[in-house]
Each structure stands twice: as structure tokens, then as C-alpha cells.
Specification:
This protein has 4 helices and 4 strands, in the order E-H-H-E-E-E-H-H. It is of the alpha+beta class and 133 residues long. The longest helix has 12 residues, at 86-97. Bound molecules: coenzyme A (COA).
Amino acid sequence: MILRDVHSTLTAKHLLFELLKERRPEQSISHKGMPTWEEHVAFVRSRPYEHWYLIEADGYFRGAVYLTRQREVGVAIFEGCRGQHYAEDAVAELMRLHPGRFLANINPANEASIALFRKLSFVGPIQITLEKP
Ligand SMILES: CC(C)(COP(=O)(O)OP(=O)(O)OC[C@H]1O[C@@H](n2cnc3c(N)ncnc32)[C@H](O)[C@@H]1OP(=O)(O)O)[C@@H](O)C(=O)NCCC(=O)NCCS
């Protein structure tokens, strides 16, 4: 498993757009619907995260992982590649590369993500965020 920097990978924008198409509302706390291709490209070019990688294994891209400037981890794996420990390995590698404190902001309905981060020794919840839409 190799982490490839998004900003140095030619096909990254397309792969990340495909990943976004698989995103479901319960998987995210910031779900705002599908952006247009132009919005997506502008978002990637804005370098929104401190570190952002594609997850490559056996010559194929399996998903993406990022670390925000607030030390929040995000990870997504293509549906067809789940359950093979790509997320676990990728987050572990991200933490090895950028040691320190880490946070995971997770929709309470996202049981897979909660289980993933608990397996990686994340504890909590340490905060409950309420929203007035
Ligand atoms: C959550 C997600 C990233 C997990 O990716 P994955 O590669 O399938 O997860 P892994 O195979 O690395 O799983 C590692 C551990 O997490 C837990 N886990 C992962 N998926 C799970 C599921 N569907 N149900 C219960 N536990 C799960 C298990 O403990 C698993 O270890 P085990 O298989 O030895 O029991 C993936 O389901 C995904 O991309 N979801 C959509 C995006 C998302 O929700 N991202 C999280 C927001 S930060």
C-alpha cells in the first residue's frame, strides 16, 4: 500500500470525483450534495487539506485519505474495494508520516467509520456538535 500525493498525481482529480459520486449523506457530517466538475477542480486546486493522498495498492487506486490543518483525518475507499483493510492501513500510514494528535469527525450513523477509528485506538466521543440548519 502506497500513499500518493494528490497534487503530484495526474489522474487524481478524476479519481477523487469518482469517489465523491459514491458518497452517501450518512457518511459525512458536511455533505452538501455532488459538486459540478468545475467546483470539484477548484476545490482540489485550493489545497484544502494539509496532506491529501490517493491510496494505491497492487497498482490500483483504492481510495483517498487526508489530514486537515486542524489534525482531522478523513478517509474514503471505493465501494468495490472495502473490507480489505485499505482504510486501516492508509490511516495508520498517514499517522506514521505525520505524528501527533488526530481527530476523526464522524456522522453518528456511520458505524463502519466509527469501528475503523476505534480499531486504530481513537477514543471518545470528546465532543458533541449540534447544528441549527
Ligand atoms: C469507512 C471506510 C473508510 C472503511 O474502509 P475499509 O477499507 O472497508 O475498512 P477496513 O477494511 O480498513 O476496516 C478496518 C476495520 O474497520 C472496521 N470496519 C470497517 N468497515 C466496517 C463495517 N462496514 N462494519 C463494521 N466495522 C467495519 C472493522 O473493525 C475493520 O477491521 P476488521 O475487518 O479486522 O474487523 C469505508 O467504508 C468507506 O469508504 N466509507 C465511505 C466513506 C466514509 O464513510 N468515510 C469516513 C468518514 S471520515
